[in-house]
Amino acid sequence: MVRHPSFAPGRLLQVFAALCLVSLGIGLGFWRFGAPVVLPLAGLELLLLGLAFVVCSRHARDAETITLAGRALQVEHHCGRQIERAAFRAEWVRVEPVHGEGSLVELTGQGQRMRVGRYLRPDLRRVLASELRRALRRECMQPVAQQTHLEQQR
Fold it and tell me: What is the rounded CA–CA span in Å between residue 143 and residue 139?
């Protein structure tokens, strides 16, 4: 599950450059006609806008990855520069909504807790939880010998 930003980081840079040109052009025009205060304010505006764009671009690649391989469930959450990871055994993990309808899906087991579904619409989180439960159930129902054979084929 990936966050879908409005602009890709490269496109955001182009938009920022265009805004800089327009704002500095307006500021220089006012400076030329005797209002020198406008140019520093335009510079401050661009500085704050640039900081906001940096924050947005840091989170452009935020994502959650859920991998079920064998009887191991791996969950990764990338948020900015931070990466949160958890590993669960398929037999022991519980899948539940955090607070109710439309809330995040919480995975718990073996003393660990991880919430997923941040980048899904609230109405699709219930679908995610049921698909996870179904996949975990199916994985746990396979005999161990068949599991090893399937892993060797990968």
Answer: 9
